[in-house]
Specification:
Structural class: alpha+beta
Strand content: 15-25%
Number of helices: 15
Radius of gyration: 29 Å
Bound molecules: iron/sulfur cluster, FE2/S2 (inorganic) cluster
Amino acid sequence: MIAPTETAKEFVNIQLDGQWVQVPKGMNVIEVAKAFGKLIPHYCYHPKLQVVGNCRMCLIEMGTPKMGPDRKPILGADGRPEIAWMPRPQIGCATNATEGMAFRTDSPLIQECRKGVMEFLLINHPLDCPICDQAGECQLQEFSVEFGGEKSRFVENKVKKPKRVDLGERIVLDDERCVLCSRCIRFTRDVVGDDCLGFVSRGSHTVLTAHPDKPFNNNYSLNTVDICPVGALTSKDFRFKMRVWFLKETPSICTSCGTGCNTVIGSREGVVYRQTPRENEAVNQCWMCDYGRLNFHYLNDEKRLTQPQVRVKQDFFPTDWDDVLSQVASSLKNVSPNEIAILASARMTNEELFLVKQLQKQLGGDAVLLDILPRPQKTDHLLVCDDGNPNSQGAQLFGVSQKGKKLETLRQGIASGKYRLVLALHEDLTKLGVSSENLSKIESLISLSLLSNATTEASHFILPGAGFAEKRGSMINVKGRLQRLNKATATPVDAKEDWEIFNSLIARLGGNSFSSIEEVFKEIAATCPALANLSLSKIGDQGIALNFNS
Ligand code: SF4
Ligand code: SF4
Ligand code: FES
């Protein structure tokens, strides 16, 4: 028996390939088969889209209970209804489970039908798999091998269609490969509300196209590349960069806004090549926005900082971690708490923010100014939320965020020379309106950053940190869901994971240090009631809804 979904409260008995099973009433037959480990091959069906039934790949044999003259099912020797099988196959995607129904998903008739559908779908297909970017994750290729015939009987000339259509800013279309499933059309029309794709022309000459006055540029366009079952839609950013079977897949989360869409990071030999959405009903279903998806190239930007540096007069000198952290620690010891300001970032993980708070405590507690830079933005009422920071909730929970209320004090304090030592953690002070002239008034400016910017250029010490794909840790999204980042690639050359940097600094100042990130989380769980009894591994790949008031 399958566990009932939230909407299905009632169960029905159905016969699936000869076995009687119980499933929620109304469950789609493709999903029923999947739940019992069987595959009904399909192209146009997608669980999140309206059913259209146009590819015919999901054919099944279907039967209903034989009815007696009393309008009651005739029961067989086993006490189950006898089945009246329909003479013709039906499409599984448009069939829902009702009491007494029977299905055959792999009978000789169905195998023959699938062969026919595959042959039909491939009539005009260019068969250019060796140069197709979808190879390795193409359902046309996979189903052709598994369910198709050995050869095509089509001897006429294939219809030629456009092969490199610029469908929008981020997508290229190969019309010859399109199987006209219409998933892309339904997605952009029904999920995004941007009705800009459609089919034109007839029969074998039908092609997908974007409306001439409405290019396919919405912020969710790349989801169509994921759901296109073939190599018709490809991402300009990813196509021909890497064969998918070489990619290491790491489940993680997007850190480009407070939604925290679940992702899979595809990387190889230390380089991230793509991010794709990972299903999580409580967060992003199975979609993500294009901005978040493509916001990883900065990890390999030429401005990436890869070594700790110390400035002497106007020149920067590379050094080692031991040296830079000792110098930073002695600078911190040489100023009084009210002369120190820390601008942290709500782009940091819970573990990092917790350690920043420990650092503040070690340096003198609330006398040390500590705040984050809020990033309010417009929500699109789909996935992009009104908070551009991925972990504002964590920053709030650990007492690092004053919601930007202290930023004016920070600005004025830098201008007046009050703050003799400033730590800028993954934030550029010039974005707060601090002028270069005022930056130069700071006696010790310490930057933890991934990329060089106006603040790092004015800094006395530069600490190169780790990007979201290069570290482990957790964040809390806008809805209070605790989620986990996983490490896909190593930090470049001599950069260090941020928690280790704070940990070493706290130890140099005489505080407690931790031997692993798990230990940091253990301490968080022991001191923060909202995370009590949790651990990094307990968060799992789907996250945990927390119960706390931010
Ligand atoms: S481009 Fe892909 S998703 Fe769109 S109709 Fe063609 S095969 Fe389907
Ligand atoms: S909606 Fe937010 S979290 Fe989701 S992919 Fe876009 S930027 Fe990332
Ligand atoms: S998946 Fe059923 S007709 Fe396409």
